[in-house]
Specification:
By secondary structure, the protein is α/β, with parallel strands linked by helices. It is 42% helix and 18% strand. Helix 8 crosses helix 10.
Amino acid sequence: MAKKTTMDAARTTVKAGNATAPAGAPQNAAQTARTPQNAARAAQTPQNAAQAARTPQNAGQAAGKPRNTQAAGAESNGSFPTLEVRNLSISFGGLKAVDGFNVVIEKGQLYGLIGPNGAGKTTVFNLLTGVYKPDTGTIHLDGKNITGKKTIEINQEGIARTFQNIRLFKDLSVLDNVKVGLHNHHKYSTLEGILRLPSFYKVEKEMNERAMELLSVFDLDKECDYKASNLPYGKQRKLEIARALATDPKLLLLDEPAAGMNPNETSELMETIRFVREKFGMTILLIEHDMKLVAGICEKLTVLNFGQVLTQGDTSEVLNDRRVITAYLGE
């Protein structure tokens, strides 16, 4: 029996709604604005200031008018947060699962979404990735409105995710699991795959090389020919993250990545998440119940309770908020 091609496996993933879309580096404009020397030179150049004053468009921008109205939260220098969510809500029958959810996540941030079981955290992830369509609200990714788009379209726009329960193709090799995630950027037709045309071999070679690069980053290249199901639990988590990164995301969503891990595996996972953020310039939003992990890597937090935002802010402040402690432990 002929083996299925990797591209066929990718198409199956998309149809099942499990496509993981996997990074956006800070824009040059933002870097320039943060450089004191550049700001000083700009201020010391009277010709530039005079030209700006004589240009109506520039004058309007200087007065506070946005150059692009795609997202309400755009920064004045024209850059956008990686993710901006406003008034997101969804109901299932009479239950308001998410009610008026708001969040802004800047480029390169490591952001946590926490709350008691049943608070609506995974529902938010499902809304962000197109599994559910919101009743109200908007979702902007890097300034572009992606509200209501299909899962595959959101994947292509730049959101990738992993799942609380690991979802790998367990009978495929470690290498092929990562190649499935490359379907956004490496393509050949079904006919080319069946007939094994030169274009098929060319694309497969490119995919193999890229997949091996990602596996080597996570120290999984030596197990590339293993079945995914034969990897230890911690390495399966790494493989799932590698597959998500293969789709070249701007935003990586991690749904309880430490679930089922022992303390040593959790500590290693923390280092892996930090490494991914630094190596790929990745913006990361994670759901997690392990407060040690959350406190150790997250810069900001949003707390959900009964579908509503309880509080938001810096990690240390949020974790010491009496309302948060009460939500977790009760009165």
